[in-house]
Amino acid sequence: MVKHFQYFADLADWEVELLNTLEKSPEQLKSGDSLWREGERADEMAVLSKGWAYSSYVLEDGSRMILDIFMPGDVVGLREYALHEHQSTVDAITDCTFCRFPHCHLDNVFEQSGRLTSTFFAISGIQQSMLVERMVNLGRRNAQNRLAHFLCETRSRLSKTNSGALNEFRLPLSQQMLADLMGLTPVHVSRVFSSLREQSLVYRDRHQITIPDIDRLQMFSDFREGYLRMQSKSKEV
Question: Boundaries of each Cyclic nucleotide-binding domain copy (predicted)?
């Protein structure tokens, strides 16, 4: 989490130590295990220290909608800070390490550091912006643009904590997960990947994604990464 936060703000050593207090008591979850379920009491958050996870909502007809994809360093449950119940279920995509912490620990961080407080709120805003982009994807972009936009977004998020151009990265989501995220069927997802490959935009080998020309893919999907970035780094101590 510290590396993730340092992308957004220049942290003092004591603020790094304060953040580290939220990543105590690591908990191991296997792929498919739930961190918490929709409707359970929301009195804690968690830091995803290792692995990938997702949040989802099950509709009345039993179909699933995936809302968020979480990567290492992400704070899970931040949007539910002021709520009594979890609004979605969080499951592990891969084997994961989570560090749970009660809301009162975050209150302690807020009391001690204005810079960390503003960074937490900024990250919460970015998470909300990703949901807005997901709504635009579902409502206004065609299937090819949806998938291409998501791949650009994923690459951009990974680049915050990884060095290099990241024209290749691992995407450990099943075809069904991608379908539930995009509002498509698994067969349609497969067809879209085939179409993007034919256009030399994206190559997929199992869970490995290769983007030969990121600028071209961003233009194709109308991806603009401003919604993933803070306006400026906080300098307040």
Answer: 17-77
210 phi and psi, to 5 degrees? -125, 125
Q: Which domains does the chain have, with CATH numbers?
A: 2-130 (2.60.120.10), 142-221 (1.10.10.10)
Strand order of the sheet with strand 75-76?
26-29, 96-102, 44-50, 75-76
pLDDT in tens, 72-90: 989 999 989 889 999 999 9
CA 37, 41, 47, 51: dihedral to nearest 10 degrees? -10
Burial class (CB in 10 A: 0-12, 13-18, 19+), 106: buried
Spatial distance between the Cα atoms of 89 and 102, rounded to a whole number of angstroms = 18
Least confidently predicted of 51-55, 101-105, 208-212 = 101-105
Tokens of 118: 């503003």
Residue 120 and residue 109 in contact, taking contact as beta carbons nearer than 8 Å = yes
- Contact status, residue 116 vs residue 19, Cβ threshold 8 Å: yes
Beta strands in 150-195 (DSSP E): 168-170
